[in-house]
Amino acid sequence: xxxxxxxxxxxxxxxxxxxxxxxxxxxxxxxxxxxxxxxxxxxxxxxxxxxxxxxxxxxxxxxxxxxxxxxxxxxxxxxxxxxxxxxxxxxxxxxxxxxxxxxxxxxxxxxxxxxxxxxxxxxxxxxxxxxxxxxxxxxxxxxxxxxxxxxxxxxxxxxxxxxxxxxxxxxxxxxxxxxxxxxxxxxxxxxxxxxxxxxxxxxxxxxxxxxxxxxxxxxxxxxxxxxxxxxxxxxxxxxxxxxxxxxxxxxxxxxxxxxxxxxxxxxxxxxxxxxxxxxxxxxxxxxxxxxxxxx
Length: 295
What we know:
Layout (H helix, E strand, L loop, with lengths): L9 H26 L2 H21 L7 H16 L3 H12 L9 H28 L2 H13 L15 H23 L5 H20 L1 H4 L2 H32 L4 H27 L5 H8 L1
Helix pairs in contact: 1-2, 1-6, 2-3, 2-8, 3-6, 4-5, 7-8, 7-12, 8-10, 10-11, 10-12
């Protein structure tokens, strides 16, 4: 991939950076289809999300709604790959609960693990069948066609000849704003919806920095690690909310089920406390600002 510098014109940088994301996406597609391993499926899903973020980021650089249409097709793949993720993570969490935590809900915990394991086997077979039935060639052709036709002349939404750093500063700022707006609500433990939305906003900002990594130099690793810590914590918070719903839906209303829900609630409380500590140690609201300053 050609190198990108601070002064590279936007239209050239957009094509180059998207090309890199596209190569990664199709490479992970091939690996996931060949092995169907948990790690390969996960990597493919992340690559699909990052490519969608790249298409959203550089949509003004290409004609009409081509980038949007391509993004929707890739979103279908992302959703398909996500069908197994929650089940896998739930099985891991319930299997790793300590003996002390499950002393009064061991039967319910084992029943839930068995139910989820059966569901995973069914979902795995269906996903394997669907994934292997999909042909990447049409999507690859559409992606190449998009890159070959940057919007340079005529009516344009952004100046295609501006330095990429000018565009990147505003692009990071847009994702940064979404993060900053949600922090006050997310500090309150009971605001699960705000924490969920913040998780998504942090993820979008993280992907945007990953795409623009060539412009961030030595600061990238530190900024990326900070966002990763927040995404991991907020992701675990959201998982516990999802897993509590799984327990309610798949287990009869017993004292053991209520005890299991209390265990999940206690874990959630501890995670939210860790999130609040992290806000003080590594202020989330400053990461986007630091990224813009690093350009």
